[in-house]
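Weekly modeling sync, notes
Attendees: S.R. (lead), two postdocs, one rotation student

Agenda item 3: backlog of single-chain predictions. S.R. asked that every request posted to the team notebook include the full sequence so nobody has to chase files. The rotation student volunteered to paste the first one in as an example of the format we agreed on. Action items at the bottom.

Example entry:
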Amino acid sequence: MPVDASAHVHPEAQLDDDVDIGPFTVIGPHVRIGSGSKIGPHAVVEGHTTIGRNNRVSQFVSLGAEPQHRGYNGEPTELVIGDGNTFREYSSVHRGTMLDEGVTRIGNDNLLMAYTHIAHDCVLGSNITMANGASLAGHVRIDDYCILAGFALVYQFRRVGRAAFLAYCSGVVQDVPAFVRSAGSPAEPHGINSIGMRRLGYANDEIAAVKKAYRTLYRSKMRLAEAKDVIREQAEASPAVATLLESLDNAQRGIIR
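Predicted structure, as returned to the notebook:
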């Protein structure tokens, strides 16, 4: 196990044999780290934190610290991280609280750039990109393949649907449906993420179907319930529109309008 002599790894921590621990890094007693993961210098991994395989943690990263919440009273809540994620300099992820499921979860193959922050009880899917300074308040849900540009902010308890795009300095105060591009503060819809959809392999007819559903949702002047009824019919012929509809059905705090 390549652990630098200056690192402090608690004897009760569980590290696979090929985990790489850099100089002056601190690993707490309840931490588990999977095979192929590399923890850079001056990082801190604490709390009941489980890190999967082949993750890359850069210098000065903080994982598993206590949540920034007045209601937290030292309970053994968790942070669970999947495989293949990258955490760049000064990014931070806090573990959960008992006000939710007690777990902050991150999926696989996500890129968290420098100075990003994920607060308590957030749930992230996979293949998400958070650019420098993007931050999530507590209890946020981010679905697969989303992109959060620099300094995008998401308010607590909000949801961002699959392959949505949050532009630079977006301030998300309501849910963002799947495939929708948003910009501004508060964030407003600005079309669909057609470039992202193409990169994910969606065919032109699926992209066109989502554009049609977007027009129904945002340009028809229908009430949300009425628009959803129309989109529900459109979803019968389009899996992508069905994904959009699912994100609308899951919205609990309203959607950006």
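Discussion: group reviewed the output briefly. The domain at 197-250 is CATH 1.20.1180.10 (Udp N-acetylglucosamine O-acyltransferase; Domain 2).
Action items: rotation student to repeat for the remaining queue; S.R. to check formatting next week.
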